[in-house]
Every structure is written in structure tokens, then in C-alpha cells.
Amino acid sequence: MVAGVVVHGTGRGAHVLLSRFFSPEGNDRTRMERSAAIAALVCEELEMLRVSAAIGPIRPDEPSTASQSSFAYIQQKPEKASMPKTGDGARSLAAGELFRTEKVLVWHYEANTCFTLVCERDESRLRAKNVLELLCCVIQQHTKNPNVLKNPEELLQAPEEMYAMLDKFLPCGELLLMSTPYARQLKRELDDSLSARS
Predict the structure, then answer these.
(1) CB atoms within 10 A of CB 79
(2) Which stretches in the chain have pLDDT values below 70?
(3) How far is CA 172 from the centre of its chain?
(4) Contact (CB, 8 A) for 149 and 139
(5) β-pairing, 103-110 with 2-9?
(6) Could you give the CA distance from residue 123 to residue 94 in angstroms, rounded to a whole number?
(7) 113-165 pLDDT, tens digit each
(8) Model pTM?
(9) What's the confidence (pLDDT) of residue 134?
(10) Is 34 helix (H, G, I), strand (E, B) or coil?
(11) How far out from the chain centre does Cα 187 lie?
């Protein structure tokens, strides 16, 4: 089961765009603070990726100790490093950190938008990653804008559609076994239900 999903930016101090929790614990009065804390934890991990991309691997012919010369090597690397345009990761949350029981954060980012699932400890991380990747593809197809994830605020132009999409892909927090054809079918069903509303 998935305890919640948080959609947020990837930069430092990134704000939460959307969040949905599927348990009473997640929907308590600290929901907004919990969502912000989850986004901050994931952004810390993404910042570590940026830093490691800036430093790069230390080759055997270069100093590998924390001496003055290795510090000089690190300083010679470019200050602004770019991360890959897409990526994913996972991080565990100890019991009592943000939830009463142990959870695992599984995230997938594309461009400047990150989708984070709060999963139970025994949930399949590969299945969570697959659902997030397919969700990103469907969002881009639904908005008919392949660059929608470069500007996360564009997702807020139709929040009810984004929440409907999250509910379709994660019904009551259930992590479905999903293939590309099944994701397309869910998108068609979503498009039909949204067009019937308007």
C-alpha cells in the first residue's frame, strides 16, 4: 500500500504542489507540514546527486585522502553541475520520523518536478518506480505539453485533473501492477470521465 503521494519541485526550498494521503494518519492536522518535510528530505537527496555530479569520480591517479591536494582537486570542478533530466531513488523513514511506522520514500523526477510516493516498508520499490514513470508520461500526454514538468507550477492550472489522475493511478493507495498499455487505458478512462464532467 501507498500511504501518500507528494508532488513538488526539485530545487532547494522546493514547495509542495500537490499532496494526497490515503490514511487517517497522513490526513491529520499536520498534513501540510508532513508534505513539506517529505519534499525537503527528497530535495536533500537530489542536492547530494548534484554535488556528486559536480565533484565527479576521483580517479586512482589523483589523491583520495582528505589532504590539501584533494581539496584543490574538488575545487577545480565546475560549480554548477547538471543532474540527469530524469532519475529516481528511494530513502527509508524510521518509525516516528514522520509516521508512526517505518515507511519508504520512492521518488521519480523529470525536469523540475518530482513525484514522491510514501510506501509501506514491504512495498515493491520497482513497482512504485514504474507507476511514477508511467504517471509522468500520462501527465505529459494529457496536458499535450511535453515540457509541462519543466515548469511545475503549470500542474496547478488544473489541480482537479491532477488529483483525478493520482486517484486513477493509485486507487485508495493501492500500488497497481501497471504496463504501458494499461496506463494508456487508464488515461482514456480519465479523459472520458473528465470530458463527461464538463
Answers:
(1) 6
(2) 54, 56-84, 198
(3) 19
(4) yes
(5) unpaired
(6) 15
(7) 999 999 999 999 999 999 999 999 999 988 888 888 888 888 888 888 899 99
(8) 0.82
(9) 94
(10) helix
(11) 20
pLDDT at 153: 83
**Residue 13 in grid coordinates:** 526550498
* Close Cβ partners of 95 (under 8 Å, ≥ 6 residues apart): 101, 102
Q: Are 26 and 118 in contact (CB under 8 A)?
A: yes
pLDDT score recorded for residue 78: 47
Residue 130 C-alpha cell reads as 514504474
Residue 119 contacts residue 104 (beta carbons within 8 Å): yes
**Residue 80: φ, ψ to 5°:** -100, 105
CA 16 and chain centroid, separation: 11
Using a 10 angstrom Cβ sphere, with 0-12 exposed, 13-18 middle and 19 or more buried, the burial of residue 94 is exposed
CA distance 194 to 198: 7
Whether the CB-CB separation of 169 and 187 falls below 8 Å is answered with no
CA 195/CA 63 separation, integer angstroms: 62
